[in-house]
Amino acid sequence: MENKKFNFVLVQYNKSNVELSHGINALALDDFLCDGIEEFSLEEARVDEILGERAYSGGDVPESLINEVEAATINQDVFTYKYFFYLNNFEENASGFIYFLKANYPELPVLIAQKNFEDWNAEWKKFYTPIIVSPRLEIIPEWLKESRQDSSAQKIYIYPGMGFGTGTHETTYLCLCLFDEIFDQLNSGEMCLDFGCGSGILGITALRTKKMPSLFCDIDRSALDNCMQNLVLNFNGENLEGSSLVIRNRFELGKQYNLVFANILEHVLIGERATILSSLKANGFLIVSGLLNHQVETIVEAYKPLKKVSVISKNDWSAILFKAES
After folding, report:
1. Number of domains in the chain
2. 3-state DSSP of 273-318
3. Which residue segment(s) compose the domain that 118 sits in?
4. Each residue's pLDDT tens digit, 277-292
């Protein structure tokens, strides 16, 4: 890393305006050169109590206030995104992002802070713990590899890149639960597509537990870098013939898969509908997520050629299991 410090911006959304985050996240990355986005959720009353009149006003933010916000009780009443800035003109980029938010979304509580890079690892690892998906499947952060040695479950190790899934977010967790639901219906050697792979956790799970060669596809090159890091973490030295990584604009149509994961946003699921449907084999399974509960019926309708097998939810988020009929 070039810089000795990094900035981050906390933005608070609630249930009525969380969909604003989709556009703001895209603008943060594209227009303000944000270097990563992380989501965590805080109890609304507690966050309001903590922030109150102390929301960002241009002065220094006490370390104690940052820690208060991040340690608040977690649930889904409030959605808080952390936007990281650490490369090139990172202070200017963060300030520009703040100005944009204040000018266009004055109703959103915002906080900005700067930390030293020696705090980076602690900052990044703070919210990650082992995820127990089922008695046979667990997701373990890389720095906790020695934990849960007494468990007989298959363990997937993950190093989270900024903004990419680790199983801690509901949408990733729900995808893993649906995978576990169809575990016995999947066969070794069948093909898996992780479309919008992020960290690669979903495809890696299929590859590790069911020996399904997997194609990892994402629009973000840094996601593919993180995915490769996690492939090495889980399979270092193993032959992964049949598996590959591809940037979205080089994804080739024509190949079909027995299992497709698409943990992406609703509008992307709509926009990529034809590509996703054409990538699914007859009798294959499609697991989609990234959906707020009220968006489920829209996606069920859009993917009507497929049979809806089940819908599962956690807090405000849902995932759908589809099957392509022969």
Report:
1. 2
2. HHHHHHCEEEEEEEEEEEEEHHHHHHHHHHCCCCEEEEEEEECCEE
3. 5-125
4. 999 999 999 999 988 8
